[in-house]
Amino acid sequence: MDKNARYFEGCGREGPINCIFLTEFHHTAGPKITCQVPEDVIAKDKFEAVSVYIIPKAQLQRSTLTITVRDLKILGFPVRIDNKKYARNAFYFNLCFVFDVWARTVQYEPLVKKLSDYLTAMEMESNFLSQQEQNSKNRERLVTLLYQVLHDLNSHKMCTLSGGTMTTHLKVVRVCSDPIQVLDHHVPVFLETNALFRSDQWDLTTQQVLPYIDGTNHVAKIASEADVENNLVKSCLQNLVYYGLVSMVPIFQYSNMYTATPKLRRLALDKRLHEDCLRSVAKSGRQLPNLR
After folding, report:
1. For the chain, how are helix, strand and coil distributed in percent, rounded to 5?
2. Helix locations, the chain, DSSP H
3. pLDDT at 119 over 90
4. What is the pLDDT of residue 9?
5. Cβ pair 70, 77 in contact under 8 A
6. How many structural domains does the chain have?
7. Is-contact 243 190, C-beta < 8 A?
8. Three-class DSSP category at 286
9. pLDDT at position 194, please?
10. What pLDDT does residue 38 have?
11. According to the model, what pLDDT value does residue 1 have?
12. Mean pLDDT, to the nearest integer, of 145-152?
């Protein structure tokens, strides 16, 4: 089934960046797409239908704008650079991310602004954007830059760009509600396989705590075995909960009484839940247990 048929705008689901394009206001041709990766995601007729919003009037400059056109959602941050060296004494551009119409995009708004500021600095330093037609090297650099952003953000949710004397770091941070309070008897459980964790992404305290998260150790025991102060461990785990990497469950005790709920039937009906359950309880990823 097509995703656009299954999902709807406001459903809260996140989707990948389908395309990144740079548009500018040409002093004779008007609004036009300067660069698009991959090409032809935004057709000419779609662009012309919303170009007045992509290169808007002065009142909307340096504002985050979200535009829905047919089955796509466009997120941009229009910029105007005033300088007498430009035709009409100003250079207008907008770097836009393109998503499926149902996708949640609020977490990308700071990135679009930050990337636009980075390109603004490059333009003011070396006319990087305004000389795209005249300088083939600038155009090749821009295509490479946009492909890097597209790939890295979709694959790793982060990206580092360097150009000339400038460097910028981009990271997708999901806007979430405050996590629950972490208590001594809580047991952290990974929601993602810990093999995917890169230690260089985390602070030193979190790196020290991660090896002791095994689905059975409770917070107080982790603090003791990792030789880390209890409140620091709680802060680290609360941060991991916020980013959706771990979940907190009560400690298992033989003195407690546990009963199955009707949701247990999902194990027989939901194949993905079935597989996730087997991976979670397996001693080795090479050989999964059987569920009968």
Report:
1. 40, 20, 35
2. 3-6, 44-54, 109-126, 136-156, 204-209, 219-226, 230-242, 266-269, 271-281
3. yes
4. 65
5. no
6. 3
7. no
8. coil
9. 65
10. 92
11. 43
12. 94
- DSSP state at residue 262: G
pLDDT at 161 over 50: yes
Per-residue model confidence as pLDDT tens digits over 197-255: 666 678 888 889 988 998 889 999 999 999 999 999 999 999 888 878 888 988 877 78
Contact 70, 46 (CB under 8 A): yes
Q: Compute the distance between CA of residue 26 and CA of residue 93 in angstroms, rounded to an integer.
A: 9
Q: Are residues 221 and 102 in the same domain?
A: no
Torsional sign, CA 7, 11, 17, 22: positive
CA distance 113 to 66: 13
Query: Letter for the amino acid at 158?
Result: M
The amino acid at 110? P
Q: Domain check: are 237 and 139 in the same one? A: no
287 pLDDT exceeds 80? Answer: no
pLDDT above 60: residue 105: yes
Sequence length of the chain is 292
Number of Cβ atoms within 10 Å of the Cβ of 226: 20
Place of tokens 């941009």: 76
Cis peptide before 188 (omega within 30 of 0): no
Beta-bridged to residue 100, according to DSSP, are 72
Q: In whole angstroms, what is the distance from residue 72 CA to residue 110 CA?
A: 20
Instruction: Please give the residue range of the domain that contains residue 247.
Output: 177-258
Residue 50 domain-assigned?
Answer: yes
**Longest alpha-carbon distance in the chain:** 79
